[in-house]
Each structure stands twice: as structure tokens, then as C-alpha cells.
Specification:
This protein has about 230 residues and is mainly alpha-helical. It contains five helices and three strands; from the N terminus they run ααααββαβ. It is rod-shaped, with a radius of gyration of 40 Å. The structure holds zinc ion (ZN). Zinc ion binds near residues 200, 202, 203 and 223.
């Protein structure tokens, strides 16, 4: 008489579920990596944008300084021309031009002050921005190391579990092995189910007294309702 089937199937069930969990965890790796890569790319972009914004403000300041110089030169010329105006019409036109240029001068002066303030503020923030960027890179590196260690651990566990499963399944009585193989092929890890009392824990159907007796006697019994290979719950 071959040995009782229950403890063998219980172990097969545990290992097959464990292998399924391991595979899910392994499959999670690339998705986690994508999220972490996105976080790094965002940090990279924020860092680059900070420096780019300083350049843009400096450029704007330079442009406005050029504009101011042109406006001031024009203003001086119009003010000089004003004295030589030969008609009221010309005089009024010059005055309008002076008012416009003066307003423009004020706008440009404000814009330059604003740009200077922006450059100053953003330049002062550079050390903090740099350390944020360095921290994001360090975090990503640490995550890569951690992920590699985790994957190695999962793969080792997987290899060991596959081996243990093969050894355990070899203990299933040969006359039931084809049936067992068909069941796990159809249902995967959930092709096996514990029996609690007389109840199949997969479909909650009660076994007959005869079926329970066979199972307790060490036989290979399948649930008449859901077809799972049954074992006694510890
Ligand atoms: Zn069942």
C-alpha cells in the first residue's frame, strides 16, 4: 500500500500556491521599475527646467536692457527735437511720443528688476535643487540594488520550490498521477483543495461519509462537485 495521499497533496498545494505568488511578485518587478523610472525622469526634468528657467530670465533681462537702452536713446532724441518743433502739431506729436517712450521705459525698468529678482531667487535655490536631484538619483540607485537583490531571492526560492514540488509530486501514487496532472493543468494551483470536517473548502460541498472515509484512509479522492483533488486539512 502506498503512503497516504493527503500530506503529499497538502504539500503540493502549498508549493503550487507559493510558486504562483512568487511568479506574481516576479512579474511585478518591471511595473515597479517603470514607476521608479518615471519618478527619476520627472526629477531630471524638474532639475533641468530650474536651470533652463534661470537662463531664460537672464536672457529676458538682457533683452529688456537692450530695449531700455534703445528707448532711452530715442527719448533723448525726441526731447531734443521737441525744442526744434516748428508747429503745434509737431510739438504735440513729440510730446505724445515722449509720454509713450517714458511709459515704455518704466515698464522695461520694472521688467528688468523683476527678472533680476527671479534670477537671484532661482540662483539661491540651486543648492536645494541640486541636492533634490542628487537624492532622486541616489534613491533610484538604491531601488535598483534592492530590486536586483529581491529578484535574486525570488528566483532562488522559485528554483528551490520547483525542485521540491517535483520531489513531492513524485510521491503521488503512479495510478493517480495522470489524473492529478490533468487536474492541475485545468485548474492550476487551485486544482487542490483541503477538506474541513466533511466539507470541500473549494466549493463548500459536503462529501459523503464513504468519500470522507476513503480520504481519511489515505486514498486519492476528488470532490464530486468541483473535481478538485482533496486532502485533509491539518
Ligand atoms: Zn469541491
Amino acid at each position: 500500500m502506498s503512503q497516504a495521499v493527503s500530506p503529499i497533496l497538502r504539500e503540493c498545494h502549498r508549493l503550487r500556491r507559493h510558486l504562483r505568488d512568487l511568479q506574481s511578485e516576479i512579474d511585478l518587478g518591471p511595473r515597479v521599475l517603470k514607476i521608479q523610472q518615471k519618478a527619476l525622469a520627472d526629477a531630471d526634468a524638474a532639475h533641468a527646467e530650474h536651470h533652463a528657467s534661470i537662463k531664460r530670465w537672464k536672457l529676458k533681462q538682457k533683452d529688456d536692457e537692450g530695449g531700455l537702452k534703445t528707448t532711452e536713446t530715442r527719448l533723448l532724441k525726441v526731447q531734443t527735437d521737441l525744442n526744434g518743433a516748428t508747429s503745434k502739431k509737431e510739438f504735440d506729436a513729440k510730446n505724445i511720443e515722449i509720454a509713450t517712450a517714458t511709459a515704455r521705459k518704466g515698464e522695461l525698468e520694472d521688467a528688468i528688476l523683476n527678472a533680476l529678482g527671479e534670477v537671484e531667487e532661482r540662483t539661491a535655490a540651486v543648492p536645494a535643487v541640486e541636492s533634490q536631484w542628487a537624492a532622486a538619483q541616489a534613491t533610484f540607485q538604491a531601488q535598483r540594488v534592492e530590486a536586483a537583490e529581491r529578484l535574486a531571492r525570488l528566483l532562488a526560492d522559485q528554483a528551490e520550490s520547483v525542485e521540491t514540488l517535483a520531489v513531492t509530486e513524485a510521491k503521488i501514487p503512479p495510478e493517480h498521477r495522470n489524473q492529478y496532472n490533468r487536474i492541475v493543468k485545468s485548474y492550476g494551483p487551485d486544482g487542490l483543495a483541503p477538506v474541513h470536517g466533511r466539507t470541500c473548502m473549494n466549493c463548500k460541498t459536503s462529501l459523503t461519509e464513504q468519500q470522507k472515509t476513503s480520504l481519511s484512509g489515505g486514498a486519492f479522492v476528488c470532490c464530486p462537485q468541483c473535481g478538485r483533488a482533496l486532502y485533509l486539512q491539518e
